[in-house]
Amino acid sequence: MAFVGIQLKRLYRLVLLPFILTAGILLAGFVLEGIWSLSRIRPVMMVLTQVPVIAAGLSTAFVLNGDPIVELTESTPTGWRKVQVTRLLIITGANLTAAGLLFIGLHMMRLWPRDQGWVSIITPVGSIFMVNCLVFLIAVLTTSMPTSSLASIAIWLFLCFIWDPYITDPVRQRLIPMIIAAAGAIFGWNMCGDAERNVVKVAAL
After folding, report:
1. Please, what's the b/e burial string for 122-148 (b: 16 or more CB within 10 A of its CB; e: otherwise)?
2. Three-state DSSP state, 68
3. Which of 12, 68, 109, 185 is the 20 to 30 A CA-CA neighbour of 137?
4. What is the Cα–Cα distance from 34 to 32, expressed in whole angstroms?
5. What is the pLDDT of residues 59-78, one digit of tens each?
6. What is the rounded distance in angstroms from the CA atom of residue 91 to the CA atom of residue 124?
7. Listed residue (53, 31, 205, 32) closest to 130, CA to CA
8. What span, in angstroms and rounded, lies between the C-alpha atoms of 36 and 91?
9. Phi/psi at 109 (5° precision)
10. Which residues neighbour 162 within 8 Å (Cβ) at sequence distance 6 or greater?
């Protein structure tokens, strides 16, 4: 628990960010609800609800690449994999919680885009899960923040403009990509445990 507390202390700003975004979007929806019709608000919400997904990917890219001290970490009992996985779980947990609160708030106000009932919560939660898992994999393979950040944007663009428009059922829309993303994260977890490889890669930067 002490180790988790240390990581939380270092990451608290990024942990708070998704909740600040959620509060801002909910406030915008509450204000617009009183002056605009639902038909005008929903396109705005469609844009705003994508912001937490982008922020989650970029935050994860920063968290996993912003501290290149692999040699030091691998020389301790903690290990690089424990550091990276703990950071991933902290930042992903915060973003998933905030995404759930955002959906609940907008769903109650009837402002969630393409709302198909409570099952639609899988859309924002699944998006963040997929983006973060795949960013974790890219971060392990490249140890590069620019590459990981670009990967998060590319994954988001794929979901928004290629996958989501053609797969409208929320469960089918997210289930297959989530399985692929989870497999990628498991592969990254295994790669992250190669201590010698980690040290050589960062030493070569």
Report:
1. bbbbbbbbbbbbbbbbbbbbebbbebb
2. coil
3. 12
4. 5
5. 999 999 866 554 445 555 56
6. 15
7. 53
8. 35
9. -90, 0
10. none
